[in-house]
Design a protein that fits this description.
With 280 residues, the chain is α+β, with helices and mostly antiparallel strands. The protein is built from eight helices and 13 strands. Helix content is 29%, strand content 26%. The protein has an eight-stranded antiparallel β-sheet with strand order 5-4-3-2-9-8-7-6. Strands 1-10-11-12-13 form a five-stranded antiparallel β-sheet. Helix 3 packs across helix 4. The radius of gyration is 18 Å and the shape is globular. The relative contact order is 0.14.
Length: 280
């Protein structure tokens, strides 16, 4: 971990304090600067989630990544500024039927801060999830106008998890999987079980190789904006800013790479974009 290089990547001059306000500022800067993306999968690059590989890709090479990469990097950064943390695994519920029990293919972080437990998530591609205290009924609002809350959910060891993250807010400030609503909708469920590196490796392998899933059939990217959210699914870009939404189609590989650089903060060359299945 080269903390100075990371801070330069996310546009901060210095590391914030190791307190709730500092955690929120650090995670927001990360989400504004480093886009979420799965493009290593359709490009055939493979996804490595050890610390050195993740730092090289997301910081040194200016690429983005998905949850197993983003939260590996964010965990290392939190450790570097003195915040003890460990990974958790979650089941993503976006767009699924009630009582669905998908595999644990999302990772987030449990942070010990000032004697209390918090969750932090720099790698959720569906929307902007803010840091929250691990308390039943805890709520937080994000700049896109959405509210988020944590609820105790299910018994320990059950498929329903111990905790459920919900969101209420504009569907346009998501990656398109949220239904139009004004009420609470589930995002993911998780428990507090210890997670080993091999558990993460197994989840990453399933997510990056399982046929006919979101990450193996689509090219996706998203990023938090100061006043909203931007998402790209294949050749369609959706922008939500200041309460207004717009969409446009991506014309060609050069337009795709330019949009990634200018909107998502993801450095993909025109030549790499041209190798995506979208333009083959």
């Amino acid at each position: 971990m080269n903390l100075d290089r990371y801070l330069a990547r996310i546009g901060l001059d210095a590391a914030p304090a190791a307190d709730p306000e500092g955690l929120a500022a650090l995670q927001l800067a990360h989400r504004l600067a480093i886009g979420f993306e799965n493009l290593a999968i359709p490009l055939g690059e493979g996804i490595r989630i050890d610390s050195a590989s993740v730092f090289d890709k997301l910081v040194m090479r200016g690429r983005g990544g998905y949850c197993f990469e983003q939260n590996r990097l964010f965990s290392d950064v939190l450790s570097a500024i003195g915040l003890v943390n460990r990974p958790l695994l979650a089941r993503v519920l976006l767009g699924l039927a009630e009582h669905a029990a998908p595999p644990r293919t999302h990772t987030l972080l449990l942070v010990n801060m000032q004697g209390a437990a918090w969750i932090a998530d720099a790698g959720f591609g569906g929307s902007f999830v803010p840091p929250m205290p691990l308390e039943d009924g805890a709520q937080a609002q994000t700049p896109d106008g959405a509210w988020h809350r944590l609820l105790r959910s299910g018994e320990r060891g059950s498929l329903g998890g111990e905790w459920r993250l919900e969101r209420a807010g504009p569907a346009s400030a998501t990656d398109g999987r949220s239904a139009p609503h004004g009420d609470w909708q589930p995002q993911y469920i998780f428990d507090l079980s210890e997670v080993a590196q091999d558990d993460l490796e197994m989840g990453n392998h399933w997510t990056s190789t399982r046929p006919n899933t979101r990450f193996t059939t689509l090219c996706v990217a998203s990023v938090v904006l100061e006043d909203g959210f931007a998402a790209m699914t294949d050749r369609q870009l959706s922008l939500y800013r200041n309460g207004a939404s717009e969409t446009r189609d991506i014309a060609d590989a050069a337009d795709y790479a330019r949009t990634l650089r200018e909107v998502m903060g993801i450095d993909l060359s025109d030549e790499e974009a041209a190798r995506l299945p979208l333009f083959a």
